[in-house]
Amino acid sequence: MEKFNVINPSHLLAPFVKYYWVLETEGDSVVTERTISTGCMSLVFHRGSRLFSSFENDLQPQSFISGQTKFYTDVTSTGKINMIVVVFQPYALKAFFPMSMYEFHEKNIALDDVGDPALNDLKKRVLDTVDDNQCISMIESYLLNRLHSFDEYNMKRIDAVVKGINQQPMISVTDLSQIACLSDKQLNRVFAEYVGSMPKEFIRIVRLQRALYLLQNSATENFTQLAYECGFYDQAHLIKEFKAFSGYTPKEYLLVCDPYSDYFSDPL
What we know:
This protein is α+β, with helices and mostly antiparallel strands.
């Protein structure tokens, strides 16, 4: 038996947190699932057994910050799952931590290694608390207290840049630099600091997520049309990117997975 629940953030945290999700399983059967880049960083608490990651060839940390990644990984259960995940807006984790988000790129950083005593205390309390709503309340209290004096002007710039990527599948880095009123070099630095990946890489992730969203909402296998609508150069480019990010061609993906975009879908 499995319980999956998605929870809205409070009004004050909605600009920064997309949602929380909670997953619990009662059985000990081994389950493997392929995960791909979602375009969002997250904060993960394993209150049950940890997952084994094929990318790291190791168990995930008990609690960790998950950075942006362009690789897929297979995660395998090692017992009963009981996890809470905080999914942040693409640019918003920076509002809670002073370091560059690029330090988390392609990594799962254990909370013990972040260097925040209050975060370590939160981890212990979440792992020791059974009630999901109480855990969410503790997480929200921590996040509200953790909001620091970040560069709001740069966050607004990156917010506008991300909206441009979301709205224009064929947008270029030069187009994004014009939106941000920055040079290409400045944009790369500020974008990586806030989003945790370079703009070009993030554009690729969003293209893939757009393709998943269109496949999710229509049973088309017209991959030439799909490539055009999502900003790929052609069908061959779509297939190459699908393979790079998921390990499957689009046709193979549809045979083994139900397409779903974590980035564009509203699970609430």
